Amino acid sequence: MSQARLIGFGAAAIEMLGAALLSAFLIWSAVRTWVDRQPSLRARAIAAEGIVFTLDFKLAATLLKSLLLAEWRQIGSFAAILVLRMIIKRQMVWQERVAGV
Prior knowledge:
Blueprint: H1 3-36, H2 41-65, H3 72-99
Helix pairs in contact: 1-2, 2-3
C-alpha cells in the first residue's frame, strides 16, 4: 500500500470517528432536552462541546492530509480549517462563561 493511500485512509478513518462522536454528542444533547422537557443551557453546552471536540478530529485529519500538501489550495484549506476551529472554540468558551455553565 502506498504512503499516500495509507495517509488518505487514516485521515478518512479519523474524520469518520469524529462524525460518529459528533452524532453521539448531538443525540446526548437531544436526550437531555427531552428529559428536561425544554431546551436547556446544559443541552446547548453538550452540543457545543461536541462541536468543538470533533473539530479537533477534523483538524487532525487535515493535518494528516497536509503531509501530502502540494498545492496552495490545499494549504489554504488547512489554514481555513485551523482559523475556523480557533474562532468557534473562542466563541464557545465565551458563551459558556456568559451562560455560567
